[in-house]
Amino acid sequence: QAVLVRQRRYDEAIEAVDFLCKKDPNNERAPYFKEVLEGIKRDNERLAELQEKALSRPLAEATSPEAIAETLELAELYLRGGMPGRVRELLRPFVSLSGLPAAACLKVAILLEEAGDSQEAARAMNRIWSLKTVRNNISALDAAVRIYEAVGDAEKLDVLLPLYIKARPNDWQNWLVLASMQAMRGKQDAAAAALEMALKHGGDKAAAA
């Protein structure tokens, strides 16, 4: 099956698993393999469809709701397929694209960060980080903190980290980040307090970090 999958002969690979299921009905792994193969086949068919639409779409229509949704879906398929370079190539133009809604801008930032481009992810996040849609949304806050930590933007972390910690006080890793930031500023008492909270919630993991 592995050879057939590499050659994108998904129907034949699925048929091979079906044959295995009939030959050995007690094989509990075969149905799982079939489900995985069917998922890969669906992803690749959808990926090909979205790529064709993206290539034929005029630039003027790039910010239509349908186009944005399809672009983000294509980026997610690239990520699932292990193609982060394609994600970066696809989404970098959207970082400075005017007319991009805040929700889409957030998704662009998250996908770029997951694709290994923290700098462009930060540029996308810069457009929306001060909005309530980010500050009042825990998953958006999590993404913003992660991105700004990666690029070392202490100014924005100063604002966002306390909001995130207030929403998730048990997250010891962000207490550690806060402790480090306070220490670098020479605020030793605040750093010690943040470190104490990190150790309280993270225990040995925080001590070993």
Give a description of the structure.
The protein has helices at 2-6, 10-23, 29-56, 65-80, 84-95, 102-114, 118-126, 132-135, 138-151, 154-167, 172-184, 188-208. It has 209 residues and is an all-alpha fold. The protein is flat, with a radius of gyration of 22 Å. The chain starts with a helix and ends with a helix. The model has no long low-confidence stretch (mean pLDDT 86).
What is the topological layout?
Layout: H1 2-6, H2 10-23, H3 29-56, H4 65-80, H5 84-95, H6 102-114, H7 118-126, H8 132-135, H9 138-151, H10 154-167, H11 172-184, H12 188-208
Helix pairs in contact: 2-3, 3-4, 4-5, 4-6, 5-6, 6-7, 6-9, 7-9, 9-10, 10-11, 11-12
What structural class is derived from the secondary structure elements?
A: mainly alpha
Number of strands: 0
How much of the sequence lies in strands comes to under 5%
Fraction of helical residues: over 70%
Which descriptor suits the 3D outline? flat
The overall average pLDDT, rounded, is 86
Main β-sheet, in a few words?
none
Q: How many helical elements? A: 12
Order of helices and strands: HHHHHHHHHHHH
Instruction: Give unreliable regions as ranges.
Output: none
Short recap of the structure:
The protein has 209 residues and is mostly helical.
Based on the model shown, name its key terms.
209 residues, 12 helices, mainly alpha
